[in-house]
Amino acid sequence: MNQTKVKNSTFIYFIKIKTQNLPFDYDPGRQHTDMKKLKIGIVLYPTFGGSGVLATELGLALARKGHQIHFISYNQPARLDNYIENVFYHEVLIPTYPLFDFAPYEVALTSKLVNVTLNEGLDIIHAHYAIPHASAAYMAKQILLTHGINVPIVCTLHGTDITLVGRDSSYKPVITFAINHSDAVTAVSQSLKNDTLSHFEITKEIKVIYNFIEVAKYVYNPDECIKKIIAPGGEKLIMHMSNFRPVKRIPDIIRAFKIIRGKIPAKLIMIGDGPERQTAEDLAHELGVQEHVNFIGKIKSAEQILPCADLFMLPSNAESFGLSLLEAMASGVPGISTNAGGVPEVMIQGKTGFLSNVGDYEDMAKNAIYILEDETRFKEFKNNAKERAKFFDIANILPQYEELYLQLALKAKDLPTA
Ligand code: GMT
Question: Taking the model in full, what pTM does it have?
Answer without folding.
Answer: 0.89
